[in-house]
Amino acid sequence: MNxxxxxxxxxxxxxxxxxxxxxLTTHDSRSSKARGMKRGRLSAAARxxxxxxxxxxxxxxxxxxxAAKSKxxxxxxxRRRPMSSAARKKLSTLMKARWAERKKAA
Length: 106
Prior knowledge:
The protein has helices spanning 3-36, 44-75, 85-105. By secondary structure, the protein is an all-alpha fold. The longest helix has 34 residues, at 3-36.
């Protein structure tokens, strides 16, 4: 065997070894990251406890807004009172006069 063939063989082995080392180090870092990013699962008891706390929180929030809404309903029911016939006739004459002015101007 000559010296060049031995050097070529050693270089190819070195590249394979470096590739193997690189693969193992990236695999190790990925697995450690994956371990750190795992999501925990809640037990049924923990989910029930959190759900009960959230229901109580929402009940408290609705109580707060319910009191404010009841005050508003006493002040303004949101319904419009029906217009009297005299008021309707007055508005009608005013609108007819406006339309007549616009027609005259045009």
